[in-house]
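Priority: low. Protein: Transporter substrate-binding protein. Input follows.
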Amino acid sequence: MNISRRNFVLGTTALTLAAPATIGRAQTDAIKFASILDLSGGLDIYGAPMAETTKMAIEDINAAGGLLGREVELTLYDAQSTIQFYTQYATQAAAGDRAHTVHAGITSASREAIRPTLSRFQTLYFYNVQYEGGVCDYNNFCTGSTPAQTVAKVVPYAMNKWGKKVYIVAADYNYGQITAQWMQKFVAENGGETLDVEFFPLDVTNFGPTINKIQTAKPDFVISALVGGAHVSFYRQYAAAGMMQDIPIASTTFGVGNEQTLISAEEGDGILASYGYFEAADNPVNAAFLEKLKAKLGDDAPVMNELAIRSYEGAMLWAEAVKAADTADREPVIEALRSGLSYDGPSGTVTIDSQTNHCSMNVYIGELKDQKWNIVESYEAQPPADTALVCDLNANPNQSAFLFENGLEAAGIK
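Result:
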């Protein structure tokens, strides 16, 4: 879904949009909330729904009276799927806007471009994206699911359903490379065999040679960690080659950009995925949220996925911490977040884990049918066990590192 910049400005209280200029009158008494996401370029399939729910969260906070008697002002930056804009806008948000919090980044590369900047300026940072785990940073709260919560669930489920021989395809950057290592680890732990692993730059659209390799290798299933609009071509070409009937697909990424809406039902039926949220999550908070979204946007409402919901829930976790701390200042808000703060959102109860600054959350396995996800398994209150293997902010709160940067083995995980 493409959302125009004009649409982001209309109908929103205390919203300014910067791409790159900021539009609107500054409100000096407002609490300042900055968002940096990809609203254009190859990653806009992720950024547009995230921006919409971020906007919705700020509107809901302000409709309820704001925070501490003050309005929350949202500045929304479009990084245009370009890493240097993340660095530029993170500096602007922290040093120029003096934002109380920044919620930003989609890819791991964008996170690692801005995380040190926000740490240096001591600006509270939320990364609301499902990712590979391993960030250990007192100033950074990661609300998205990690491999111990999702890959560890979908791999054995798919192996029990389809067989033990696995072929892995993944995006060629931190997320894909590290998640592929987690996939291989969980395949081996469940008695399976990884036949091959292939990585693809984000702009690759021709997957013919790889599909031929998969046909020759004859795995029981393929597991995908492909990312971005270009990589949707893999699923189309895979189905066109008649592969879905013989060698099915599981994924840790398909669906977080609503890719299922970009291919036909015939091309996608049967794909498995695991996330911290699907629209089919059966709880009253989710039902009310979806009804409100539909009333607001009508037929233009995007399908909700983990990235979009975590953007909403991340903003709400921050708001709850501001209320608990009775200030928007960074250190008291961090203390409030790390006190075991929870929020009951559309995905279920999300709770901050103080050891890692990640979240315990409900996790779901979905199966695609007619371009909609049906939940086939649910797991309550799953901890961020992967990052907890290497990170202890209770013992060492001065940490500010990405501990999986050089892979799992370098971090001491066999």
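The two ends are 40 Å apart (CA to CA). The longest strand covers residues 358-369.
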